[in-house]
Each structure stands twice: as structure tokens, then as C-alpha cells.
């Protein structure tokens, strides 16, 4: 047998490989950090997150208290830089506090759906046969409904309120995630390297985690991030229809709904919550694109950046 | 069409197709790659030229430069003449008209080269109608004739078949009939038999030979399989690292190779005679377009390499009438002593 | 030692074979219709039997659709067999008193044709190589040392290649990694499923040399699946020819190449393109193409393309006849069967 000639022997090799792996992740991070569009979007998101987190410290007003005298003041009014709504409440304050609810309603369902849907998709994709049929045909039922209708239908069964909104949106988002995960898993599972892993005697769990999941995780996460924007819009839509968070909670969708009548009188005020929804979901989508670009392992190693 | 008329009236003793110092450049991430450099070939009417090469040799891109289907961002230098007429000066529209009408091309993977949503009969008819006959009836009749010409059994029924309903060999025949639909002067074939089984490969090679004789076409065949070249070629050009390193008649090049690469390639085949002994190999691997060595592209793997090989690109020198070799050592003692 | 039995292919069956496959069959259901019911079966492998002796390279030759890759998958138990048995060193795989599939996989590994698809694109070469041993209980240290040694053995400098990703390797290098991975579990038999077919010819020669060296140094046996008859003639001791899921002929290599008995084998050998431009093929060696595996011809599956087809060929499946005991040369053809009613059963034309 050939002798080993590596200077320093075996421990060096492991270190070398580990360094390369870290290097790959570091280069992923580097790519994101040098992508101006993604950075800007991420910065905006961070700003929004922090602002709504520290909402009580960012404003002196109470989001629930209004004044009949100061209704529908325009932007730039001293003391109310974003104006007031139809009950005289400070819009800036309501946006801040409302952001908590909207973001919660946006991110939480996606996180749960990724967990549940991802697992279902993996099992369906890898298992095949009747397991696949049962899971996928069930998902088809949900998928057949347009998301808004489905959310509305579920909310009318379980009732209104924040928790129910989150439940409803989770259910809505599970089926597209399952579909994507199952499709990816099915493709990967028939690739030769998975066959080789099976041939080497590895257990199913080991194959799923080491080989299948690693290759499926990237696209799923990217897809999930792009779903956050949708989720926020859906949550706002539900509230707008009266099925989500009840008034006087300052959720963005609720604000849109209540400011609806003011659209002819103070159109800009009425548009502000919509603008927040738009900006937030756009930024999530941009970050999602940036993530996909940064996680592309081939591009990372080929360009050496 | 005035263009076809102009080409038709050219005297027939001229080479059917001629490439003069053709090169292809592709910019990639700051660099400019040159996967094809200084390629000059001449093919007479009714003759077959095989370009032999491995990956990275530039053989496929040379064909695409000829037909004008280079990838995005790639540019071509040099001259291409069809029956004496310089086609590099033509507009994109005129070149498109030549494609299919004067030059036909068949590809390696028949499954992907045919549109899966149209029947094969429709695809052939479309090509005919795009260039020559405008009546659907006559074009369809012509298409059916072509299917019979390429020996597709049950041609009338297969006319209405979709590509996925046909086997690999039949798809390749369908692709050939599309390429021949307008009776081109030149047929280009990019590894047409690589994806096929051995028995089907032989059928296709014999078919191409028969069709060529029937229609008097010139054929340029690109392949990495020397045996395919031996079966089909009148002339052979060997490409390496973007350049032609040896050219001559098939017998000359394949039986008495002069370039070290050609020699080594012919020797590195697994044969029954070698059983029990290691096969002589060329160390290393063919270079990618981004890493072509300085001087002679083959020098890092060549056992005859001298200093001059490392610094200067050898010129394409004629040995006798048809034979050319691109090697500093050609004609010198060390090479000659090897039989 | 029997006279004339220099090559291992001619060893008498008295020596216990390393691998014995008997009457292996597999049919894949074809689903269609609304609820995905089974409407037909593709009989991918039908009654395949062969043996592999110690020190041998057995080549499996056939065109696409012949079932040779399915045989490989059945051997590795990546696909379950419908019928038949597989014995490794006398022990039946899957039987109660035999060995488990897991144990089989310690002794038999596979290298695939597509060198890129066979590697997880997110793992470095090193991680790919340690995965097998680790899955089978080896410690981190042992696996790492083994990985390093393997890279050396397949001709890749560990310092340069261990930390690379698959897309940073050339085709030949990737295939070396695949071979190293197959070796990582210290198997006795390696199945090479068209392992060199997708490589450039000069690289193919390098890998073939490597395979021959490894076989000698590590005392391996190969099942070499290929459609390239030149390579088969170079490397194998025995050859098994398959057509549409059945074995039509098997014998020692020189018997197959110099005295082929089955019409299909002859056609295959004639289809080999010549390397000499002065001696070109002028006649079609064989007509038509392989029939649809969902509805193979009755009786002998080759009869639709066979120039010698007779009535009995459509009526009965040909028996497997041993035409030469010394070379263990077997043919499945009515013409070789003196008891069949084939008009040429007396003897084949030369």
C-alpha cells in the first residue's frame, strides 16, 4: 500500500478540510455583505424590526388614544410627522405598534409552515408510494384554493384574532412548501450520490439529513423568505376583511381598513399603512433573492469570491 | 432568392466550404477566452472531413461558428466562405436564410434537439416551408419522402409521432431528415452517434455515407471517437487546445500520425493486443480554454517538448500536398524514429 | 491443474464461486390511468444467472434496454428482486441463515457512469469519503486516515484534493473519487456501471490502468458493465452478453470474441467500427432496433432481428446450452440446442 507523505500527518488534513468548509460559509456571508441591493433591503428590515421592537421608546403617544380635534391631520403636522388617522391617533405610533402584529403575523406562519411542510415534503419525497400519494393528494386539496379564499375560509371556522390568523396562514402556506420540498426531494433522491450513500450502508435518517436535506435546505429557505412578504399581505388582508386582529388593535391591515373612508379627504394618510406593507414585503423578497445568490455553492467556489 | 442564386452560379470546382484563420473569443469574468484559434480548413464538394478532439479542443465551437450559432457574447474572427462567397460579411438575416437551406446541422442528443411538443413530420415540414416550398401539402409530401429516405420504418405512421414516442436511433434519423430537408450543400454533425448504441451507431454512419453519396453533400463531422472518423472520413483534422494540430487524409493521419498528440491518442486505446499490460497514457488532462499553456498547447504533456515549444506557438506547416502539422518537432529525428 | 486452463475464466466450477447469481428477475410496473393503476410491466431482467470467481473480471455487455444496469442495481439491492437468489461466498443474501443486505454492501460496491451526479455537490471530497466508514461505525480518526490513504491510492494528492468540491474536479478526477469511495468500505467486488464511458479517451486509459493496478494490489474482483467492446476485450476474463433483459451468451473472453455462437453477439462484434480507414464496414450488421421492453417478442426475444429466426423461436424460449465445458461457454439459442426443432440445430454456419 502507498505510504502517507503528508507533512504533519492526518490531523492537518482534517483541519485543512474544516478550514475550507468554514471558508465556504464565510464566502457566502461575504457575498451577501457585498451585494448592495440585498444589504440595503436587509438594513431596512432590520430598522423596521428594531423600531417595532422598541416601539414604546420610539414614541410618546398611546396608539389607542385619539383626539376628535386632531383628526386626519396631514403629514408634516408639528408633533405628528406622519399625520393622524380618522380618530385622531398618531399614525407613526400606530404604524410602530401595528408593525409588531403585522410582522408577527408574517414571520410566524412561515416559520411553522417551513417546519411542518418541510418535514412532510421530505417524507413524501423520499418515501414514495402510498405515503407520497396520501400526503400529496391532501396537499392538492389545499393548494386548489386561492390563498386568500382559503385563509378566509379557515378564519371563518376558527374565528378572528391574532392566534387564529397565524393558524390559518400556517395552514395556507404549508401546501406550497410541501410541494416544493417533495419535488426537490424526489429529484435528489434518484441522483446517483444518494444511491451511492444507500449502497454504502447508511441509515435512512443519515441519508436524509446528510445528503437530502443539505441540498434541499437552500432552495426551501429562499422560498420561505419570499413567502414572508405574502404572509404579511395575507394577514393584512384578513384584518382588512375583519377576520384578523379586531379593532382597536393597530395592525397595518386594520389601519388600511379604517382609513379607507379617508381616501378622498386625506389620501396620503390612507396610503401609509399600505406603503409599509409594500416596503416590508419587497425587502423580504430582495433579501430572499440575495440569499439564493449567496448560497449558490458553485458560484462561490468558482469565482473565488 | 437572390442569395441562393448567387451561390448556385459559383463554379463547382471551388471548395464547398472554407474556413480561413477562424477564431472564437468569449469574454468571461474579466478575461477573454479563446476556445478556438487560427482554424483553417477546406472541404471539397462531396467530401467528408472529421474533426477529432477531446473536451476543450474547441471542435464543437468551430462548427457553431460555421453555422453562425455561437453562444451569447461570443465573437468570431476570420473568414468563412461557402462556394467561394464570404458569408461572414452577411447580415444576420441573410445568415439565417443560409442556415437550413445551404447548411444543415445535426446534434449529439436527439432527445433534446427535437421539440417535444410537435410531431416529427411537422418539424420537417416547418423547415421546408421556412426555406423553400410554401405549400403545406407539397412540403408535407416532401417531408414524408425524407422520412423514407432515412430508412424510418413505417414512415407514414411515424410522420405523426412525437419525439418521445421514437427510439434514440429513430430520433437521430428524424433529426437527419430535418437537416436534409432543403438539400443543403453542407451537413455539419456534432457527435451524432455518441449517445447511440453500437449497432445503431453503425446504422447511422452507413446511412450518412449513403445520403452523402446520393446528395453530393460535403460533411463535416465532429467526434472524439477515432473509430467513427476511420469509418466516415476522407480527411481528418485533429484539434487540441483550440487549434488544429494535424490535418491530412484519413489514411495518412490515422495510419501514420506525425503530431505527438495524434500519436499518443492513437496509442492510448484499450485493445485486445494490450491485454495484461498498462495502456500508454498521456499524463494529465486536456486544458480548459481559460488555461491554455503558452507556446504549443500540448507541450506540458508532450514527451518531445523542447524549450521552443514552451514559448512559441508552432506554425501550421505543410509536409506534402495535403498534409499539415503544427509542431516544432515535426520532421525532426526524435519523432521520426518512432514507427 | 487442468490442461489449457490458464485464464481464470476457464476455471472449472469445482472452485467455489465468489458470487453466484441464479434466475434473477425483475419487472417494473408501469402505472397509468386515473389512480395510477398498474397497466403493464417492463421485464427489465428475466432469468439471469451467472457466477463470478475469485480474481475475475466479468464484463456485462449489451445495449441500452438490455437490463445490464438493472442487474447492477439488483446486485446492490438498491432495487428489490422479484425472483432469484444471490449468494456471496456461499451465503444467501436476505435468507434467514445467510447474510443481510448490509453485510453484502460491505463486500460489494458500485461506481456509476455519471461521475458528477454520483457526488453530493455540497460535500467536499474528504467528507464524501469518510461518510461510508462513519455510517458503518468507524471512528472519526480511522475514517479520516482511510480517506487520506484512499486518495493516495487512486492517484489524487490528498493535500490538493481533499478539500475540493465536485465541481472543482475534472471528469477523470471525479471518477477517481468515486472509485476511492467504493474502496472506502474495503469491498471484495466492485461493480463498474459504464464507469469509463463518459470520459475522454485519454482519461479513460488512465482510469483503466488505475483499475487494473488496484485489482492487483487490493485483490479485487470486478463486474464491468460496458458497451465498448475494445475495453471489454482488454480488461475482462469473462463476458456476459445481454439482450432485452436476458442473457444470450456468456463465456471466457477469447471464446466470445473469437468464437461467438449467438447471432446477436456476432452482430455486436461486427458493429464495432474499424480503426483502419482502409477497411471500412460496408454492410449493415443488424437491422432494426431493440423492441419495446413492455412487450418483448414471444419465445426468443431476439427473433425479430435475427436472420436465422425459425418457427420454434417464436414458440419457445431457448434453453441455455453449454457449448464448451472448458471455457464455460453458454448460449441461449435454438440453433445451439440439438434437441430443438430449429432447422439449423445441427450446427451453426461458421
Quick summary:
The complex is a heterotrimer of chains A (305), B (339) and C (350). Chain A is mainly alpha-helical and 305 residues long. Chain A has helices at residues 10-33, 36-53, 55-58, 91-127, 129-143, 147-158, 162-189, 192-199, 204-240, 252-258, 267-295, 297-303.
Description:
The complex is a heterotrimer of chains A (305), B (339) and C (350). Chain A has 305 residues and is an all-alpha fold. Helices cover 74% and strands 0% of the residues of chain A. Chain A has a single domain (51-59, 81-303), classed as MetI-like (MetI-like fold, Orthogonal Bundle), CATH 1.10.3720. Chain A has helices spanning 10-33, 36-53, 55-58, 91-127, 129-143, 147-158, 162-189, 192-199, 204-240, 252-258, 267-295, 297-303. Chain A starts with 9 loop residues before the first helix and ends with a helix. Mean pLDDT of chain A is 82; it is low at 1-9. Mean pLDDT of chain B is 83; it is low at 1-12. In chain B, helix 5 crosses helix 6 (136-149). Chain B has helices at residues 2-8, 59-67, 92-101, 110-113, 120-131, 136-149, 155-158, 168-179, 198-215, 226-232, 250-255, 260-267, 307-311, 333-336; strands at 17-28, 31-43, 48-52, 75-82, 85-86, 103-106, 186-190, 218-223, 235-240, 243-249, 317-318, 324-325. Chain B has an 8-stranded mixed sheet, with helices on both faces. In chain B, a hairpin with a 2-residue loop joins strand 9 (235-240) and strand 10. Helices cover 35% and strands 21% of the residues of chain B. Chain B has a single domain (2-102, 184-270, 278-336), classed as P-loop containing nucleotide triphosphate hydrolases (Rossmann fold, 3-Layer(aba) Sandwich), CATH 3.40.50.300. The relative contact order of chain B is 0.13. The longest helix of chain C is centred in the middle third of the chain and has 18 residues, at 201-218. Chain C has helices at residues 68-75, 101-107, 125-135, 140-153, 158-161, 171-183, 201-218, 229-235, 253-258, 263-270, 311-315; strands at 19-32, 37-52, 57-61, 83-88, 91-92, 108-111, 189-193, 221-226, 238-243, 246-252, 320-324, 329-332.
Helix percentage of chain C: 25-40%
Instruction: Give the CATH level 1 class of the domain at 17-28 and 40-122 and 165-273 and 290-298 in chain C.
Output: Alpha Beta
N-to-C SSE string of chain C, H for helix and E for strand: EEEHEEHEHHHHEHEHEEHHHEE
**Number of helical segments of chain A?**
12
Low-confidence stretches of chain C: 1-13
Number of strands of chain C: 12
How would you name the CATH homologous superfamily of the domain at 17-28 and 40-122 and 165-273 and 290-298 in chain C?
P-loop containing nucleotide triphosphate hydrolases
What is the name of the CATH topology of the domain at 17-28 and 40-122 and 165-273 and 290-298 in chain C? Rossmann fold
The oligomerization state is: heterotrimer
Order of helices and strands of chain A: HHHHHHHHHHHH
Largest interface: B-C, 45 and 43 residues
CATH class of chain A: Mainly Alpha
What share of residues are in beta strands of chain A? Answer: under 5%
Spatial separation of the terminal alpha carbons of chain A: 39 Å
- Average pLDDT rating of chain C: 87
Shape of chain A: flat
Amino acid at each position: 500500500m502507498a505510504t502517507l507523505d503528508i507533512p504533519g500527518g492526518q490531523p492537518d488534513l482534517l483541519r485543512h478540510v474544516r478550514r475550507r468548509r468554514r471558508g465556504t460559509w464565510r464566502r457566502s456571508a461575504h457575498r451577501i455583505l457585498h451585494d448592495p441591493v440585498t444589504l440595503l433591503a436587509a438594513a431596512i428590515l432590520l430598522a423596521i424590526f428594531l423600531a417595532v421592537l422598541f416601539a414604546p421608546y420610539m414614541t410618546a403617544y398611546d396608539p389607542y388614544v385619539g383626539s376628535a380635534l386632531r383628526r386626519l391631520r396631514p403629514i408634516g403636522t408639528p408633533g405628528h410627522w406622519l399625520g393622524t388617522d380618522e380618530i385622531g391617533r398618531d399614525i407613526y405610533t400606530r404604524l410602530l405598534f401595528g408593525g409588531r402584529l403585522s410582522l408577527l403575523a408574517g414571520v410566524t406562519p412561515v416559520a411553522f409552515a417551513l417546519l411542518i411542510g418541510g418535514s412532510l415534503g421530505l417524507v413524501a419525497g423520499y418515501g414514495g408510494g402510498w405515503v407520497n400519494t396520501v400526503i400529496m393528494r391532501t396537499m392538492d386539496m389545499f393548494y386548489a384554493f386561492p390563498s386568500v379564499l382559503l385563509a378566509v375560509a379557515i378564519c371563518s371556522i376558527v374565528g378572528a384574532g391574532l392566534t387564529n390568523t397565524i393558524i390559518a396562514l400556517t395552514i395556507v402556506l404549508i401546501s406550497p412548501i410541501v410541494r416544493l420540498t417533495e419535488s426537490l426531494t424526489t429529484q435528489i433522491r434518484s441522483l446517483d450520490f444518494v444511491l451511492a450513500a444507500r449502497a454504502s450502508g447508511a441509515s435512512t435518517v443519515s441519508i436524509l439529513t446528510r445528503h437530502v436535506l443539505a441540498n434541499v435546505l437552500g432552495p426551501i429557505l429562499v422560498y420561505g423568505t419570499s413567502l414572508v412578504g405574502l404572509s404579511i399581505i395575507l394577514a393584512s388582508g384578513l384584518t382588512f376583511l375583519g377576520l384578523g386582529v379586531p379593532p382597536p388593535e393597530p395592525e397595518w391591515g386594520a389601519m388600511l381598513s379604517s382609513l379607507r373612508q379617508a381616501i378622498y379627504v386625506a389620501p396620503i394618510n390612507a396610503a401609509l399603512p399600505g406603503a409599509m406593507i409594500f416596503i416590508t414585503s419587497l425587502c423580504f423578497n430582495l433579501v430572499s433573492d440575495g440569499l439564493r445568490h449567496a448560497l449558490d455553492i458553485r458560484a462561490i467556489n468558482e469565482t473565488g469570491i | 432568392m437572390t442569395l441562393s442564386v448567387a451561390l448556385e452560379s459559383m463554379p463547382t470546382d471551388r471548395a464547398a466550404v472554407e474556413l480561413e484563420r477562424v477564431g472564437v473569443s468569449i469574454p468571461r469574468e474579466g478575461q477573454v477566452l479563446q476556445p478556438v484559434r487560427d482554424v483553417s480548413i477546406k472541404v471539397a464538394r462531396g467530401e467528408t472531413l472529421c474533426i477529432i478532439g477531446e473536451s476543450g479542443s474547441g471542435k464543437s465551437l468551430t462548427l457553431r461558428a460555421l453555422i453562425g450559432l455561437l453562444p451569447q457574447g461570443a465573437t468570431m474572427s476570420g473568414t468563412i466562405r461557402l462556394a467561394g462567397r464570404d458569408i461572414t460579411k452577411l447580415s444576420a438575416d441573410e445568415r439565417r436564410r443560409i442556415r437550413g437551406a445551404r447548411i444543415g446541422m445535426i446534434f449529439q442528443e436527439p432527445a433534446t434537439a427535437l421539440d417535444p411538443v410537435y410531431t416529427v413530420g411537422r418539424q420537417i415540414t416547418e423547415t421546408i416551408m421556412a426555406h423553400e416550398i410554401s405549400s403545406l401539402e407539397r412540403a408535407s409530401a416532401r417531408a414524408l419522402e425524407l422520412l423514407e429516405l432515412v430508412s424510418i420504418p413505417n414512415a407514414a405512421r411515424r410522420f405523426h409521432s412525437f419525439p418521445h414516442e421514437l427510439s434514440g436511433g429513430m430520433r437521430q434519423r428524424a433529426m437527419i431528415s430535418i437537416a436534409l430537408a432543403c438539400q443543403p450543400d453542407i451537413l455539419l454533425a456534432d457527435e451524432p452517434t455518441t449517445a447511440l448504441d453500437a449497432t445503431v451507431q453503425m446504422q447511422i454512419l452507413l446511412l450518412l455515407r449513403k445520403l452523402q453519396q446520393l446528395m453530393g453533400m460535403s460533411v463535416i463531422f465532429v467526434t472524439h471517437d477515432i473509430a467513427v472518423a476511420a469509418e466516415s472520413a476522407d480527411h481528418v483534422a485533429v484539434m487540441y487546445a483550440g487549434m488544429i494540430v494535424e490535418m491530412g487524409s484519413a489514411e495518412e493521419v490515422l495510419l501514420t500520425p506525425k503530431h505527438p498528440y495524434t500519436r499518443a491518442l492513437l496509442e492510448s486505446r484499450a485493445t485486445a493486443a494490450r491485454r495484461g499490460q498498462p495502456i500508454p497514457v498521456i499524463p494529465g488532462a486536456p486544458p480548459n480554454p481559460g488555461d491554455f499553456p503558452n507556446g504549443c498547447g500540448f507541450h506540458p504533456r508532450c514527451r518531445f517538448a523542447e524549450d521552443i515549444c514552451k514559448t512559441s506557438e508552432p506554425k501550421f506547416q505543410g509536409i506534402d500536398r495535403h498534409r499539415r502539422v503544427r509542431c516544432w518537432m515535426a520532421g525532426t529525428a526524435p519523432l521520426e524514429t518512432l514507427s | 491443474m487442468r490442461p489449457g486452463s490458464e485464464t481464470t475464466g476457464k476455471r472449472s466450477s469445482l472452485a467455489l464461486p465468489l458470487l453466484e447469481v441464479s434466475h434473477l428477475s425483475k419487472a417494473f410496473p408501469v402505472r397509468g390511468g386515473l389512480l395510477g393503476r398498474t397497466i403493464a410491466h417492463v421485464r427489465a431482467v428475466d432469468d439471469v444467472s451467472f457466477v463470478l470467481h475469485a480474481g475475475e473480471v466479468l464484463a456485462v455487455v449489451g445495449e441500452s434496454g438490455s437490463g445490464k444496469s438493472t442487474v447492477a442495481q439488483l446486485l446492490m439491492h438498491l432495487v428489490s428482486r422479484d425472483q432469484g437468489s444471490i449468494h456471496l461466498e456461499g451465503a444467501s443474501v436476505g435468507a434467514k441463515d445467510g447474510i443481510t443486505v448490509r453485510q453484502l454492501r460491505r463486500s460489494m460496491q458500485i461506481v456509476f457512469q455519471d461521475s458528477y451526479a454520483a457526488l453530493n455537490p455540497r460535500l467536499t471530497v474528504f467528507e464524501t469519503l469518510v461518510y461510508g466508514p462513519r455510517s458503518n461505525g468507524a471512528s472519526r480518526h480511522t475514517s479520516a486516515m482511510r480517506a487520506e490513504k484512499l486518495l493516495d491510492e487512486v492517484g489524487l494528492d490528498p493535500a490538493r484534493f481533499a478539500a475540493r468540491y465536485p465541481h472543482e474536479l475534472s471528469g477523470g478526477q471525479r471518477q477517481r473519487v468515486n472509485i476511492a469511495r467504493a474502496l472506502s468500505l474495503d469491498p471484495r467486488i466492485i461493480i463498474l456501471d459504464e464507469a469509463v464511458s463518459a470520459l475522454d479517451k485519454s482519461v479513460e486509459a488512465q482510469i483503466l490502468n488505475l483499475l487494473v493496478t488496484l485489482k492487483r494490489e487490493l485483490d479485487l474482483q470486478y463486474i464491468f458493465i460496458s458497451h465498448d467492446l475494445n475495453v471489454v476485450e482488454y480488461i475482462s476474463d469473462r463476458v456476459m452478453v445481454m439482450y432485452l433483459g436476458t442473457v444470450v451468451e456468456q463465456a471466457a473472453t477469447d471464446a466470445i470474441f473469437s468464437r461467438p455462437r449467438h447471432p446477436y453477439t456476432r452482430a455486436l462484434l461486427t458493429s464495432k467500427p474499424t480503426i483502419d480507414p482502409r477497411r471500412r464496414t460496408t454492410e449493415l450488421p443488424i437491422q432494426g432496433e431493440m423492441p419495446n421492453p413492455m412487450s418483448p417478442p414471444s419465445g426468443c426475444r431476439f427473433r425479430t432481428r435475427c436472420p436465422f429466426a425459425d418457427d420454434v423461436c417464436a414458440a419457445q424460449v431457448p434453453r441455455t446450452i453449454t457449448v464448451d465445458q472448458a471455457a464455460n461457454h453458454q448460449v441461449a439459442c435454438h440453433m445451439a440446442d440439438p434437441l430443438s426443432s430449429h432447422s439449423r440445430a445441427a450446427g451453426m454456419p461458421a
